[in-house]
Design goal:
The protein is mainly alpha-helical. The chain has one domain. The chain has six helices and no strands.
C-alpha cells in the first residue's frame, strides 16, 4: 500500500504544480489585453497577439495536465488494487518514458528554441517579430521553470518505484 500512497502523493504534487501554467497563462492574457487597450507605441501594440497566443497555450497546457492528473489519481487506485505488481511495472515504464521526454523536449529542444528566438531578436527589427521573439522566450522560461520542478518530482517518484520493484 506504500507505493499507492507514493503514487497518490506524486499526483497531488502535480495537481499543485500544473495550475501555475494556468496562472501564467492568465497573466499573459491579461498582458495581452493591456497591450491591446493601453498600447500607444507600435512595439506595445505588437505584443497583444503574441502574448494572447502564449497565454492560450499555457492555459491549454495547464488544463490538459490538470485533468489528466486528476483522472490518473482515480485510475491509480483501481490499477493498484487489481494487480499491484503490474501497476508498479506500468508506472516504471511511464516514468521512464516521461523522463526521456523531459530530457529531449524540456532540457534540449526548449533551450535551443530560446537561443534561436534570442538570435532572431538580434537580427529582426520589426516590432511584431521582436514581440514574438520576446514572448516566445518568456513563455518557454515559464515552461522550463514549471517542468524543471516536475522533472525532479518524476525522478524521485521513479526511484521510489524502482525500490518497490526490487523489494518484490
Amino acid at each position: 500500500m506504500d507505493i499507492l500512497k507514493t503514487a497518490t502523493d506524486w499526483v497531488k504534487a502535480e495537481l499543485f504544480s500544473t495550475p501555475f501554467f494556468m496562472l501564467f497563462g492568465i497573466l499573459f492574457i491579461a498582458a495581452s489585453i493591456g497591450f491591446w487597450q493601453l498600447g500607444k507605441t507600435d512595439m506595445a501594440r505588437a505584443y497583444s497577439i503574441p502574448t494572447l497566443v502564449a497565454g492560450i497555450l499555457l492555459l491549454t497546457i495547464g488544463l490538459g495536465l490538470f485533468y489528466t492528473n486528476k483522472s490518473r489519481m482515480i485510475a491509480f487506485e483501481k490499477a493498484y488494487h487489481n494487480d499491484a505488481q503490474a501497476f508498479v511495472a506500468s508506472e516504471i515504464l511511464r516514468a521512464e518514458s516521461t523522463l526521456k521526454e523531459y530530457d529531449t523536449v524540456v532540457f534540449k529542444a526548449i533551450p535551443i528554441i530560446i537561443i534561436i528566438a534570442a538570435l532572431l531578436l538580434l537580427l529582426l527589427n520589426t516590432p511584431t517579430w521582436r514581440a514574438i521573439c520576446i514572448t516566445t522566450i518568456a513563455m518557454l522560461i515559464v515552461i522550463l521553470l514549471v517542468d524543471g520542478t516536475a522533472h525532479a518530482r518524476m525522478e524521485a517518484y521513479h526511484k521510489e518505484l524502482k525500490l518497490t520493484e526490487i523489494k518484490k
